[in-house]
């Protein structure tokens, strides 16, 4: 099972998401929370701070560990740890081969956004999307 981390970055009624590139092997072009795979020897906490810096070019401060989940994406089984936190700086696309865009979404926009299935599932769990 592969392991990953993701960050829910919320400021007021806005959520920061990034759009996967069209070359992504899973869910290309979909909007998701930033994050990525945990490298060998890394703790989840170190991994999420590194991933946010690499993907968005900002510093991430962990406020809390929200929960862990297991899901399937393509042929891979994943365990993901979801953190809540805040950022310092202005997020931007750092790796165009992985991310096409970065955007703050109003909570009211999430239902109609083209979200990755696992991101939509998280937002339903949080009560931000009523399916």
Task: Name a few traits of the molecule.
131 residues; Nucleoside Triphosphate Pyrophosphohydrolase; 7 strands
How would you characterize this protein structure?
The chain is an alpha+beta fold and 131 residues long. Helices cover 18% and strands 44% of the residues. It has helices at 44-56, 117-126; strands at residues 2-11, 14-20, 31-32, 35-37, 59-73, 76-88, 99-106. Strands 1, 2, 3, 4, 5, 6 and 7 form a seven-stranded mixed β-sheet that branches. The protein is globular. It starts with a strand and ends in a 5-residue tail after the last helix. The mean pLDDT is 93.
Outline the secondary-structure elements:
Layout: E1 2-11, E2 14-20, E3 31-32, E4 35-37, H1 44-56, E5 59-73, E6 76-88, E7 99-106, H2 117-126
Parallel strand pairs: 1-6
Antiparallel strand pairs: 1-2, 1-4, 2-3, 2-7, 5-6
Major sheet size, sense and barrel closure: 7 strands, mixed
Distance between the termini: 29 Å
CATH class identity:
Alpha Beta
Report the mean per-residue pLDDT as an integer.
93
Give the proportion of residues in helices: 10-25%
CATH architecture: Alpha-Beta Complex
Taking pLDDT < 50 over at least 5 consecutive residues as the criterion, the unreliable ranges are none
Q: What is the string of helix and strand elements?
A: EEEEHEEEH
Strand content: 35-45%
Number of domains: 1
Radius of gyration: 14 Å
How many beta-strand elements? 7
| Total of helices | 2
Helix/strand/pairing category: alpha+beta
CATH superfamily grouping: Nucleoside Triphosphate Pyrophosphohydrolase
């Amino acid at each position: 099972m592969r392991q990953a981390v993701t960050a829910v970055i919320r400021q007021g009624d806005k959520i920061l998401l990034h759009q996967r590139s069209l070359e992504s092997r899973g869910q290309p072009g979909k909007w998701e929370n930033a994050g990525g795979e945990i490298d060998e020897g890394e703790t989840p906490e170190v991994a999420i701070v590194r991933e946010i810096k690499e993907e968005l070019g900002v510093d991430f401060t962990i406020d809390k560990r929200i929960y862990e989940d297991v899901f399937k994406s393509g042929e891979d089984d994943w365990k993901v740890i979801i953190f809540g936190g805040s950022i310092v700086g202005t997020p931007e696309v750092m790796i165009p081969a992985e991310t096409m865009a970065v955007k703050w979404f109003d909570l009211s926009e999430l239902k109609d956004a083209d979200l990755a299935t696992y991101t939509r599932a998280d937002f339903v769990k949080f009560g931000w999307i009523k399916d």
